[in-house]
Amino acid sequence: MNAIRLVPLFVLMCCCGAFATPPDASWFPKAPPLPQPTGQVIQVADVKQLLDALAQVRPGGTIMVAEGHYRLPRYIEIKTDNVTLRGASGDRHKVILDGASSRHGELLGVTGCSGVTIADLTVRNIKWNGIKINSDLGAQRVTIHNCVLHNIWQRGVKAPAVPEDQQEKLSPRDCRVQFCLFYNDRPKRFEDDETDTPKTYDGNYIGGMDVKNTIDWRITDNVFIGIQGRTREGRACIYISENGRGCIIERNIFIDSDIAIALGNPTLGYSPLQAIDCKASDNLIIDCPETGILACYSKGCTIANNTIHDPKSPRGRLIWVQKTNEGLSLMNNLVIGRAILNSGTSEIKQQGNVVHASLDDAVKTADKDVGQRGLALPQIQDAIGLQARRKSAALTAARKSMEAGVQTDECLAAMRKLHAGFKGERGQIAQFGDSITYSLAFWAPLGFADPQEYIVVDDGLPKVPDKQRWRDCIKGVRDKGEDKGNNSGWTV
């Protein structure tokens, strides 16, 4: 057999969809810097100092966090009015609050206070909520500015429902989420969140922002990439529901996520008005196959001047109107793919919307379309390229992991020693893992299909064994079950 470089499948699974560096493009919104702090300023450079600062900061104070990787052991909270928690350098990628080792499912909360600002830092690796605005406990007027929410497996930003008898008092008012980047390296898996099971949400309880009972929020100039459920049926990147009022959703970018914007929740029939007097305008949505923009159980809402691209959408729900939507206006939207889908019962106002079957058609007639929507067309092309680079980065990372010099000399020597003592049956696959491994989608197709059909990049290496098929030399592709080292629900 000719020498064939086999990239370990577990490496591909871990890297699939990942960015080698955080995603960026020249046309992503750029955050203006915050002014210099006034009043009390507490400088922190390690986790203990951060925990102490949160306990000691006075109203109006600022906690300046030095560049570094802060592995938090537990959930932390801001409980003081008008406090700012910010990265000292202004580079949001260099101040990392990491929840991978936290004993809790939420990482950073705001509770019982008003006027808090969180800025210029990254929150990542937590199974439930990254930043929790505890509106049911009195949090108001929170600003999240120029932050990164990375690999958060339920919601990057969460504001829970307020009890009906306390909504006038506690409904969160005047919050801002602006110039933030929400991105995940891959779709959600069962092992990311023990509460999201085949019997609950089937691995799809994930979104970017889920905020309820909101009043006069501004969600602007953010980027959402790869917010995906296990079966690509996740929740919205921006989700307004349960009597959300006067919210503005503007100039956001959504790429390769399941749902971009949801004004309302079709499953909450008990709350007939989900979104009231909200506006979604001037947003760019690229390939969100579950739904681009949803409106349901709304009143007085406007969806205007958005560009939505998904010509191959399997469901055709680029803009989807359902249930009741009194006074809904759809104005001057550019849709590339299927036409606006209205399965609702209310009369809606439609004016100036343009539908094209393909990006090429849109480019040809851009000068005839109304408004400024044509400016988004080059961004669509760049976004498609970004998706391709994202997939290429996964392949590059997997290949690089196999190059000599990447592993230490000690590691290579140990592996060669281990291989020299091999006494097993050559070609036999040992499958150790959880539900992914246990599935017949893992390795079993090699028993009847030829994987070279799916290899789209030519790396110059042989794609099949010499004069054989994979099924001729690989054994054990259907070795599934506890006795073979794999089973659903196991962790490895």
* Low-confidence runs of at least 5 consecutive residues: 1-17
- Assembly type of the shown chains? single chain
Q: Widest sheet: strand order?
A: 1-2-5-8-11-14-17-21-25-28-31-34
Helix content: 10-25%
What is the approximate shape?
globular
Q: How many helix segments?
A: 8
Tell me how many strands there are: 35
How would you describe the overall organization of this protein?
With 492 residues, the protein is of the alpha/beta class. It has eight helices and 35 strands. The protein has a twelve-stranded parallel sheet with strand order 1-2-5-8-11-14-17-21-25-28-31-34, covered by helices on one side. Strands 4, 7, 10, 13, 16, 19, 20, 23, 24, 27, 30 and 33 form a twelve-stranded parallel sheet that branches. Strand 1 (41-44), helix 2 (47-56) and strand 2 form a beta-alpha-beta unit. The longest helix is centred in the last third of the chain and has 24 residues, at 377-400. The radius of gyration is 25 Å and the shape is globular. The chain starts with 8 loop residues before the first helix and ends in a 19-residue tail after the last helix.
